[in-house]
Structures are given as C-alpha cells and as structure tokens.
Amino acid sequence: MPNSQLPTPNSQGPLSVTADRPGILRRCLGSVEAKLILAWLAVVVGTIALDPGQTYLNSPGSTAELIIRNTVFLGFFALGSAVIIISGGIDLSSGSVIALSATVFSSLLMLIDPEGFRAGEIQSSVVWVAIAGTILAGVMVGTLNAWLITSVGLPPFIATLATMVGLRSFGRGLILAVTGNRSQIDFTDLHLRDSLKDVTSVSIVFLIFAAIIWFLMSRTVIGRHLHAMGGNETAAKLSGVRTDRLKWLAYVIGAVSASMVGIVYFADQGSAKPDVLARGYELNAIAAAVIGGCALTGGVGTIPGTILGCLFLRTVIDAVNKIVGTGADVYEGMIVGIVVVLAVTFSQRGTIAIRRQYFGSVIGWAAVPVLSLIAGLSFVLFFREKPWFAPVYPIVVGLAVAAALSIRGFIETQRASK
Amino acid sequence: MQPLVSIRHIGKQFNAVRALDDVSFDVLPGEFHAVMGENGAGKSTLMKILSGVIPDYDGELWIDGQRQRFTSTSDAEKVGISIIHQELNLVEQLSVAANIFLGRESTNGWGLLNSRAMERQSNELLRELESPISPSALVGSLRVGDQQLIEIAKALSLQSSILIMDEPTSALTESEVARLYGVIEKLRSRGVTVLYISHKMDEVFRLADRITVLRDGQFVKTVDKSSTSPREIAHLMVGRELDEPVARKLAGDTPVVLEVDQLSLPWPGHSKPWRLRNISFQLRRGEIVGIAGLMGAGRTELLESLFGASPVAHQGRILLDGQPCRFGHPSQAMAAGIAMVTEDRKRLGLFSTMNVRENISLCALQSLSSRGVLLGGREREAAQQQVLQLAVKSDGIDASINSLSGGNQQKCIIARCLLTEPKVLLLDDPTRGVDVGAKAELYRLMERLAAAGMAILVTSSELPELLTVSDRILVLSEGVLTGEFSRADATEQRIMEAATQQAPRQTA
Questions:
Q1: Which end of chain A has less neighbouring CB within 10 Å, N or C?
Q2: pLDDT class for A11, splitting at 50, 70, 90?
C-alpha cells in the first residue's frame, strides 16, 4: 500500500469513497456538454421554425446526412487540435497537413500503380499502402512540429505557423513534380472515391478514432499527464512527467488526424489541389475545440465536448444556409466568429465572478455603432433578395440594435457607479 | 492628533479563505508604522487594499479625513499613497527613467516622448537617494537592491506622502540594507509616513514608532515601540507562548541514505562561474536536515540538483544508499526514491485546473494503473487515504484545488510526494504562505515522517522554523557551504553569521 510507513493518526472506519462526490445530475447539467446539447436543440428548433423550405421536416434523412458529414470531417482534426490545446499547445498547421496528405495520398496512388490510376481501377493493396504512407507522413509532420517546439525551443504558435505555410507550399511543389507541371491530381477511380467518402464508413472510422482518443485522454496515465502538462508544464516536469515525449505524442495525434481527413477530403473534392484545399481549416478546428470547452491556456477540455462543439458549429452554419438560402457559404467565417465569441463569453460568465461592463466603458460605447452597423449591413446582405425586403428594414434593425446596446451600457454604468 | 490613515472594519475574502476580517487601526501623520504578523496573517492583502491594487473589499478607508475607495493604484497615487511591492513591479526591458515615469511620461509640444527631461529628473531623484545608477540603464541589468531604489525614486517623483513597503529588505545584502535605512531616514525627515511590513524583529525595533500586529487576518494590537519588547510582539504574532522546540529523539547512528560529495553546479553566462561549489554532506535515515541561507544563496539550486531538475548538469558525486546516481530528469530521481516539494507552490507545484484527487495522485499514477489505464477506484482510495492521514481540509477529493487554503494545498503537494514512497524527501520552503496553524501541523508531519525513517532535507526563509524542525542545519552563502550546526549548537546569531559570511573567492 502506498504510504504504509506512516502511522495512521486517526483511526476512522472504512473509507467512504463516494460520499463526498457532488450529485451526478447537478454535475452533468452544469457541464459544457449539457449546455451545448441544449444550445444545439435550440438551434434545431429555431431552424425548423424559420426555414422557409422546411428541409428539416421534408427531408430529414439528407439533412442529417449533410450535418453528420460536415461534423465528422471537421471532428477528425478538431479532436487532434483539442488534444494539442488541452496539453497546452496550439496547432496552426492542420489545414496545411490536410492539403499535404491529400497530395501525398494521390501521389502515392499515381506513383505506385500508374496504369491502374490512369485506367481508374486501383488495386486495393495499393490503396492500403497509400493510406499507410499518408499516415506515416502525418507522423513525420507531427514529429517535425514536436522537434521544433521541444528541441529547437520555438513557441508552438511560431513552430506551427512555419509548418503551416511551409507544408502547403511543399505540397504544391510535390504536385508539380509528380504530375509534370500540373497543379492538381484528379481522382480517377470513381468506385474507390465513393467508398472513401461514404458518410457511413467515414463516420464509423471517426467514432472508433474518437473513442480511442476519449479513452486515452480520460482513462489513461498518458491522458492525465497531458492534462497536467497543459495546466502547469513546469510543475508537471517537476512531478516526473516526461513533457517532451508527451508533446511529441500530442502533435503526432494532431497531424495524423489531419492526414486521415486529408484522404477523405481528396475523395470528397475529387481532386488534390494543395493550393486551396482546406485553407484556413485549422482555425475552424481550434474554434470547435474552444466552443467545446477547451481553454487555450491548456489543461481544460474534453473529447465529447469537442465533438459537440463541431456538431453545434456545423449545425449553426447549416441553419444559416437554410434560412438565408443559397450562397450562404460566404458567411461561414462570420458565423464561426460570432459563435466563438458567444460560446467563450457565456462559459466565462460561469467561472469568473467579475461583473463585466460590455458597453459601459469608452471602448464599449465605441463598439455600439460598429455592432449596429454590422447588424444593419448583415441584414441587407442576408435578405436583400427576399420579396419582402425594403430598405427601411436594415435601418430599423441597426437603430434597434444601437438602442438596445446603449440601454445596456447605460444600465451597466449606473450599476458600476453605485 | 488626527490620524492620516484610518482603516475601518476592513475585510477580504479569497474563495474559501478569509484573508482579512474586520481590521481597524489608525496611522498617524509622519510616523513609521510597522505591520507585523506571520505569513498568511493578511499584511500584504491589507497593503494591497490601501494602495488600490485590490479594489473590492468590505469596510472603509479614510485618508486625511476623507473617505476613499480606490479602484486602481493611480487613484491611490492621486492622494499620495505609493507602494513598493515584495515582488518589484518594474519592466525589465525598459530603462530606469522609462520605469520611473511609466504611465505618466513627459512629452514635448508634439506629443512625443521627452526622454531627456525624464532622464534629467530621474537623475535628480537618484542623486537625492545617493545612488550612482544611470537613468538610461536597463532595469533588467541592475541588482535587486538597485531595482528597489528605482521603485523608491518613483514614489518620490509622485510626491507621495504615504509610502508602503512590503518586506523591502528580504532580498538585499547587508550594505544595501544599510543604504535603504539611510533612504528611509531621509524620507522621514521630509515628513513622509511609512507603513512597513516586515518579519524581521531587529529591523522593526530599530526603525518603527508604532507596531501593529495581525494574526490570521485579524487585528491583534497596536503598540508603541517604547512600551513593548520583541518577545511580546512574537507572542502577539503567534497567539501563544512560542513552544520550545520539542526535544525529539535524534536519529543517532542510522545508515546514511544520501551522500553528496564535492557537488558543484556551473553558472553559465554569469560573472560568477559557480552557482554551487564543492558541497559535501551526508543525510541519514530518519534525520531532518535544514538548509539555511539568504535569498540567492543556492538553497533551491542544491535541492534541484539532487532532484535532477536543474537546467545545467552538476559536477561531483551524489550517492543514494551508497550507489552513485546521476539524474537528468525528475522522473529518474523519483524512481530512485527522491521526492521534492517545490518552493513556488502556484508556479511549480499546483495544477489549478485539476481537483484534489488528481493533484495528489499525479506522481504515483504508474502504481495506480494497469498497463497505462487508470484504476479509478485505487486512485480514489489512495487520495482519500492521504487526505485523511494529512488531515487535508477540503470539500472532498473531487473539490477544485483552488478552493483550498494555502496550507491545505501544500499538504496535497506533500501527499503527492508521499504517494511515491520516497526514501529522501526534499522540502523547499514548505511553509511559505501557509497560516500559523497549518505550519505547526506541517512541522509535526515532518517529525512523524522522520520517525518513520524518511530522510528529510528542508529549506526555509525563516530561521526560527529551521531551528524548530531540524536535527542539523547546513548554511549556504553564495553557493558555498559556510557552516554546519547540530541542533544543540545552532542559534539564529551563529547561522546569520555563517549565512552572511563572505564566501572564499571562487575559482574556476
């Protein structure tokens, strides 16, 4: 038994191990996960109410498939990012790793079996070799990131910024060399393409991957050590945790998850174009992890939360698509931005006991016209082609927002002066 | 005489800890008022409230007959209160002049920085303090004592009538202390009121007019220096007669567990080549050995080299149970049976994002798991047992570590070490920031562990503490072992002499 050399000072009865745990129900309801599920349900109900096409009710199957597909694609590398963020780092390179691995995968198919590739009938053994090669490339990228961070001593932001720009460019060069000066490789084997992007099988692979990562993070010594390192790296090292090796593991998980999804994106898009594929996706992954409760300061976050974060983010984007109509993908970035701000603001309110002055300070007042202008202009952008649209509406919306925020600011100022 | 500062019913809560509770006392104009109390008595918290660092508190503050409520340090500066913190508040990358005028820089007609004017004024201020520091020097390149003078110069430039100093001499050499006393005399002759926090009895009795004692966040008494004695103050601080150290049965001729032979630690990139030089000693089973020394003497560095945690490799031999060993990483030291409780609890010890259980079990996870998979029940049981054994006060083992008081957090970190079943326990200033009651518990715990056969090496910034717990005391001065005293021979006087002894000239 640990500590058997100590004489026990107080001879209490058998240890009541469970007595002091807070109520399970209360703990569950207070969690990020529960809040996200509630928020997600609200978005779904809201979409059903507002969607003029009523797609949720008319074609639930295809809607669900679309959302699941988008969630799972994002989920793969968001989980990788979550592991890195929980361990106290950041990975800006995952979008580029997706592009690079699509390049590597397609190049391997082409180089190993040129004739099968040209004919569109690739042998399955070749496919497996190419998958293994792509994942190996992921391991190597993760090792490169970890080496830059631990041995060279760069901050994770800088190290992965360098690999972010570097690897995408490297992928473009690779394509040029492999194809003889073309900028993309097209997927020729349509049968293989269909099976690689099949939502059911990709979802099953994702669930297995997520289960492994969840188990690793919450049930193993390594997972506990990753949390500890993210919470306080120096203390973890002084507690005997091998921080450098753990960082290697975290960045390899991040890069491997991105390289797996690179294969799927290659199939989904039908071509490997490293100059544009998955550009900026690393930020979506970080956003999903943050919405799911991961703190960028490290040590905090869960795998189920991150998956729910992906689901929530993709559902909101889908909802805006439905409500605004075609062409809404332009606003994806706006939505991600707004959701991140709101999610982190609300989760902060629970933990930090300061009463914030959102609009009651000088900068707060300066932000009121900015936000009102954004609200009014967004109204124009979203709804200008609707039959009921009239120029007076955005002005009303803008003024209403300005009034509401000003009242809020006024109340905050009053409260602070008391 | 109308008081200059009236503190009325001031209270402050930090999470579960009541740092200050209904404290009231007055400070008279022009006096030197010392505030004393053990660590955790609430002195620093009170001074932070007085200087606007902490804006939310209960109670009232009257300055010069006006009720004040500061929301920031600049509010306090406006009514003439400046504070010199224990941890200095300077931007090391900026020059002396830039630091003195930070936040209220002089500008010329174009709104551009007028560096020359700031440097000229800084020079005048520093000349007044009889210091040869150049106003254009980078603060980071100065010694701690000189940095402190910069803070004082800053307070002077603010024309402060009330100067708060929080343990200003704790990091200073003797000559720097003498210079500081001179500066304080000068300030007093200009009518500046000084509020002075200190642990050091001789210092307080030399400088103070009146002394206020706080204990566990509560006001105890304000006394005139002329009508009191150090003994009475100590009594007021602790709340009971100071226990004579309990005569513990000394370890005697138990086997040597740890032997350190000619240990040296290089100091790359520093004018002195060695951080530690030729240190040799033995540690026996069941023995508690204290390491005394001023700040920067190398106490922490010595423990870190034994624990494999120093950034540079040491020279010389370390023998554990007679076997030479060399640790490149703390995990190797822990595997060999050495555990360490680090000095700066918040920065180096605690995992604030984790709960009590996770904080306790962290180092022993290998034995609480099977093939790398955590055994939840075993972990809970082990944590629960430690919590009971060390009498940790918490809302259960799933409570956040942040909800515990400093002393109980420290017990959790010690529990973390004990779970690894170490032969040698290294404790680096374990009672820092721990309240009086928990301190006494920690002393008893150390004695219990030693009685059970553990060998303990402990450092402390408080000499009386080392005299209470140690069987033997080693004294470091500038990285060199300058004294070794048995419990019977050790007195504060002799230890201080050894600790301030000029180390023999270091050779490479």
A1: C
A2: very low
Report CB contact under 8 Å: A238, B369.
Answer: no
pLDDT higher than threshold 80 for residue B173: no
**Pairing mode of beta strands B5-14, B58-63:** antiparallel
Determine whether the interchain pair A220/B421 forms a contact, defined as Cβ–Cβ distance below 8 Å: no
Q: What is the pLDDT of residue B293?
A: 84
B433 secondary structure, DSSP code? T
Per CB-CB distance under 8 Å, the chain A contacts of B327 are none
Residues B302-328: pLDDT tens digits? 999 999 998 889 999 999 999 999 999
Among B367, B373, B453, select the one facing A220 at the smallest CB separation: B373
Nearest to A231 among B348, B354, B369 (CB): B354
The Cα B147–Cα A79 span in angstroms is 47
Cα Rg of chain B (Å, integer): 24
> Which residues in chain B have Cβ-Cβ distances shorter than 8 Å to A413?
none
Selected residue with higher pLDDT from A148 and B134: A148
Of the candidates B51, B119, B112, B55, the one whose C-alpha atom is nearest the C-alpha of residue B86 is B51
Q: Tell me which of B357 and A12 has the higher pLDDT.
A: B357
CA atoms within 13 A on the CB side of A47: 25
Instruction: Quote the tokens at residue B33.
Output: 């008022």
Q: Among A165-179, B80-94, B272-286, whose mean pLDDT is lowest? A: B80-94
- How many Å apart are CA B119 and CA B117, to the nearest integer? 5
The CA-CA-CA angle for residues A207, A211, A213, to 5°, reads 115
Count the residues in chain A. Answer: 418
Type of residue numbered A372: S
Please tell me which residue of chain A has the smallest CA distance to B418: A3
Q: Is the pLDDT of residue A10 over 60?
A: no
Residues above pLDDT 90, as percent of chain B = 36
Please determine whether the domains at B1-80+160-242 and B256-337+422-508 fall in the same fold group of CATH. yes
**E strand residue ranges, A250-370:** 271-272
pLDDT at A19: 39
Local structure of residue A359 (DSSP, 8 states)? S
Residues of chain A with C-beta less than 8 angstroms from the C-beta of B397:
20
Assess contact for A238 and A225: CB atoms under 8 A.
Answer: no
Do the beta carbons of residue A210 and residue A307 sit within 8 Å?
yes
Domain map (residue ranges) of chain B: 1-80+160-242, 90-159, 256-337+422-508, 350-419
Residues 6+ apart with CB under 8 A from A281: A74, A77, A94, A95, A98
What are the chain B neighbours of A240 within 8 Å (beta carbons)? 329-331, 333-335, 363
> For B396-450, how does the pLDDT look when each residue is reduced to its tens digit (9 = 90+)?
899 989 888 778 899 999 999 999 999 999 999 888 767 666 778 888 899 999 9
B107 near B97, Cβ under 8 Å?
A: no
How is residue A22 annotated by DSSP?
P
Say whether B381 and A236 touch across the interface (CB within 8 A).
Answer: no
Mutate to test the interface with B, among A239, A242, A244, A357 (most CBs of B within 10 A): A239
CATH annotation of B1-80+160-242: 3.40.50.300
Contacts of A30 in chain B (CB under 8 A): none
**Superfamily for the B256-337+422-508 domain:** P-loop containing nucleotide triphosphate hydrolases (3.40.50.300)
